[in-house]
Amino acid sequence: MLTAYTADQVRDAERELMARVPEGSLMQIAATGLAAVCARLLPSVYGARVALLVGSGDNGGDALYAGARLAARGARVEAVLAGSRTHEAGLAALLEHGGRIADESALDAADLIVDGLVGIGATGALREPYAALARRAGEADALVVAVDVPSGVDAGTGEVAGAAVRAHVTVTMGACKTGLLVDPGAGFAGALEFVDIGLGPHLPDADTGALTGADVADLLPRPVAESDKYRRGVVGIVAGSESYTGAAVLAVGGALRAGAGMVRYAGTSAPVAQVRAAWPEAVITELDGPDLGGVGRVQAWVLGPGLGTGGFARELAAQVLASDVPVLVDADALTLAAGERALLRRTAPTLITPHAGELSRLIGVPGARIEAARLEHARRAAAELGVTVLLKGSTTVVAEEDRPVRVNRTGTPWLATAGTGDVLAGVAGALLAQGLSCYDAGSCAAYVHGVAGRLAADGVPLVTTDVVAAIPEAIRSLG
Ligand SMILES: NC(=O)C1=CN([C@@H]2O[C@H](COP(=O)(O)OP(=O)(O)OC[C@H]3O[C@@H](n4cnc5c(N)ncnc54)[C@H](O)[C@@H]3O)[C@@H](O)[C@H]2O)[C@@H](O)CC1
Ligand SMILES: [K+]
């Protein structure tokens, strides 16, 4: 599990640790780690041109001391001083090892730019001249290494309020920051490198976490010798309609491929015909009216993809949501719930899987604001609605009250195509039916779905049926 923390959490932990170690020693460890990463990225340190963007705080200090180390190994290091103050000892070390102070044109000729403008001490959008320097760094040809966080990215949330440095690599000190995992910030961070400064014992419970493949492999249910199809989890799927048949096929496919012991599908004649043709494994109930009484017992429901929002769909949704088993609520069922919030008042667990637009209707916040502050709004929706929220998008996050938000790191932009959400709903529903909590089912499903998307795309456009087909390979690859 990769865990991440807010700026305040890291600052508090640093304060505790600093009281126990010699003054300045943490910065020396941080700068040594930073210089080592920079050296690895350069074909040769000797003769390389390195430009340091130096802000007025300790983030600039890290950059200066790392620059001093690179200068000592023969790099041509130039410091662009952005603030009214500069970390004096760091600057002295740089000058002593042959570095020099330069103006911003140093960025244009650099092989490597080290962004030490601001770190966890930043407040609000970058002010001038920092913002202009961040933009200029983005225009340069150089490799860009951010110190601790890319300047302009909020370390605690990933929000980007103005200009920000777009880094190829971010070297983060002591603990990963939440803002490095969540978009839009994650998109500015590039590859993450971690420097251990001994903060571990002083850190509180994590603010956010990201599952690794090994974590998902541990969480995924594996059949044991005495498993039968009922004990492996029966998932009921209420999806698709006369106009939208594909959603049903994809949700059923996702559920089957994710290891449900049995998938019971209920729908009207057109989607039933499609599901029957695509998935002979599904146990099908063709509905004459809005009554799920004949479907049989399930351990979890998937409700909503392609269902429609008319009276028939509303009746089905009400029956599913009145059940005493976990329900995954997606797509059209979210639209129904937005118009009738009482539908989500349940005693059994509920996992909702909106994208920003759907969440916008549920909590009355514009979609663009949700996109800009994904964590805040996923958390808020979980608290307000009393459900687990899997907010889909460039970074999928899973929020549940009083738990660290789980951030998924396996997605690919190629997954932004019609029908992939239906597959995700099927996968998560199958995991719910196999006994995973909403929190684990949502985050494991997002992980597996992301890997399947990457495997299916492999650098070229994918169609959603490819994602379903890639699920077994995705699960195999977890190790
Ligand atoms: N405290 C410690 O023990 C350690 C700190 N480290 C480094 O220190 C950093 C934190 O240092 P600081 O607390 O000095 O804070 P920062 O260096 O992150 O930033 C604070 C400075 O930036 C200015 N500033 C704040 N917001 C701004 C904005 N929006 N636009 C322009 N200027 C702005 C402030 O006026 C202040 O001078 C970490 O991110 C990390 O890089 C590391 O060396 C590890 C050890
Ligand atoms: K920085």
Automatic annotation (TrEMBL):
Keywords: ATP-binding, Isomerase, Lyase, Metal-binding, Multifunctional enzyme, NAD, NADP, Nucleotide-binding, Potassium. (6S)-NADPHX binds at residues 58-62, 119-125, 130, 148, 247, 306, 355, 422. Its EC number is 4.2.1.136, 5.1.99.6. The keyword Nucleotidyltransferase does not apply. Its cofactor is K(+); Mg(2+). It comes from the Bacteria. K(+) binds at residues 59, 115, 151. It catalyses: (6S)-NADHX + ADP = AMP + phosphate + NADH + H(+); (6S)-NADPHX + ADP = AMP + phosphate + NADPH + H(+); (6R)-NADPHX = (6S)-NADPHX; (6R)-NADHX = (6S)-NADHX. Residues 10-205 form the YjeF N-terminal domain. AMP binds at residues 392-396, 421. Binds 1 potassium ion per subunit. Homotetramer. Catalyzes the epimerization of the S- and R-forms of NAD(P)HX, a damaged form of NAD(P)H that is a result of enzymatic or heat-dependent hydration. This is a prerequisite for the S-specific NAD(P)H-hydrate dehydratase to allow the repair of both epimers of NAD(P)HX. Catalyzes the dehydration of the S-form of NAD(P)HX at the expense of ADP, which is converted to AMP. Together with NAD(P)HX epimerase, which catalyzes the epimerization of the S- and R-forms, the enzyme allows the repair of both epimers of NAD(P)HX, a damaged form of NAD(P)H that is a result of enzymatic or heat-dependent hydration. In the C-terminal section; belongs to the NnrD/CARKD family. NCBIfam families: yjeF_cterm, yjeF_nterm. This is Bifunctional NAD(P)H-hydrate repair enzyme. It comes from Nonomuraea longicatena.
